[in-house]
Amino acid sequence: MTTPDDLAAPEPGARKLLLAVDAPSLLHRNHHARAHSDLRDKGNRPAWALHGMLRQIIEAIDQFAPDAVIFGLDDRERSEREAFYPDYKAGRAPKDAALVEQLERAGALLDALGLATLTPPGLEADDVNASAARWARENDWNCVIITSDRDSFAHISDHTQVLRLINGGMANSPLLNPRKLHAMYGVAAENYLEFAALRGDASDNLPGVSGIGEKGAATLLAAMGSMDAVWADIDHCDGQTLVAAVDSLAEEQDQRRIGTTLLRRLTADGARERYAFNVRIMSGREDLDLGLTPDVPGTPGLLPLDIDRVARVVGHLNMQATTDLAVRVLTAAPTTGDNFTVR
Asked: What is the pLDDT of residue 14?
């Protein structure tokens, strides 16, 4: 298990750091984990998911010391993916009314704090994550994506790591870089989208290529390097190179030969179309304007935040300990031996 300790705060002269947060993902997890608390804000509205999300992000900011933070939100009115594929995410249980209310209030809460948020029309938080990863690469920053969704693994690179929240909170969640992703799945980071498209994703109601699971997909990509190479070999060499490469790798690893089986499944009716369909649905948009202006101090998303805004907005959630932590971590408030408390 890896933890946020694996990524130290940037040293002088190192790349700056952007934290990209999948807000709906955190809200969903905290709703289910904290609903029993029935925490209410000062207006007596449900606040347990909002509080849990904000608490985790404050802890992450304290750990990583980012230079900027952006929160991705889902467009809750329209979905381009659902318009293209009406069964997208079908089968998920209806959302609890208290969760829906907190999802709808999240953007206003974060904006009020002075943090950057983006709700891309017709798109999702994962598209913001994809664009954040590209922004970091193009601006020579590092990026840490915080999410519980595996889709963001496709954005892992030398610039971007993913902190995947699992049970046990921030401290027990793995921080994945290319090396650790390969150790988990046997797949290079740049091939993860292809791997996922072959495997499918039951949580989004996306079947994979029939008969090809995680092991077969990883072996295929390790042997051939990319799905472009796979399809080219099938088109021009009837898959002969594919079979030879997969079986050669199997021999090296003392595994069963599966080259002919993989070729048969990849050339079955609808297999290539299913793969291409999944790639289209799973691909995150990388061209979103994040609105980040690091050269303009005080603009949304840049730290530190205004102490009065932080005290007022976080204080409305009615958890004094979290307000104290937020003031210490998010603002430039002077520190002493005692915790700063807003009265």
From this structure: 84
Query: Is residue 308 within 8 Å of 117, Cβ to Cβ?
Result: no
CA separation for the pair 209, 199 (Å, rounded): 6
Residues 166 and 197 in one domain: no
Comparing CA positions, the residue from 272, 245, 298, 247 lying closest to residue 114 is 298
Residues 208 and 278 in one domain: yes
Instruction: Note the pLDDT of residue 221.
Output: 98
Amino acid 274: pLDDT: 98
pLDDT score, position 297: 86
- Residues lower than pLDDT 50 in the chain: 1-5, 7-10, 12-13, 335-343
Give the three-class secondary structure for 239.
Answer: coil
Describe the crossing of helices 178-185 and 192-199 by its angle, rounded to 10 degrees.
Answer: 30
Which CATH number characterizes residue 250's domain?
Answer: 1.10.150.20
DSSP, residue by residue, 327-341: HHHHB-----SSPP-
Asked whether the beta carbons of 71 and 116 are under 8 A apart, the reply is yes
**pTM for the whole structure:** 0.91
Q: Where are the alpha helices (DSSP H) in the chain?
A: 23-34, 48-64, 80-84, 97-113, 125-138, 178-185, 192-199, 214-224, 227-237, 240-252, 259-266, 271-282, 307-315, 320-330
Q: How many residues does the chain have?
A: 343
Q: Tell me the β-bridge partners of 168.
A: none
CATH at residue 47: 3.40.50.1010
Per the structure, the complete domain to which residue 210 belongs is given by 190-282
Are 289 and 275 members of one domain? no
Range list of β-strands (E), 116-212: 116-118, 142-147, 160-164, 175-176, 200-201, 206-207
Within this chain, do residues 29 and 156 fall inside the same structural domain, yes or no?
Answer: yes
Among 253, 282, 311, the domain boundary falls at 282
Q: How many domains does the chain have?
A: 2
Q: Is residue 332 part of a domain?
A: no
Within a domain: 124: yes
**Could you read off the pLDDT of 100-111 as tens digits, one per residue?**
999 999 999 999
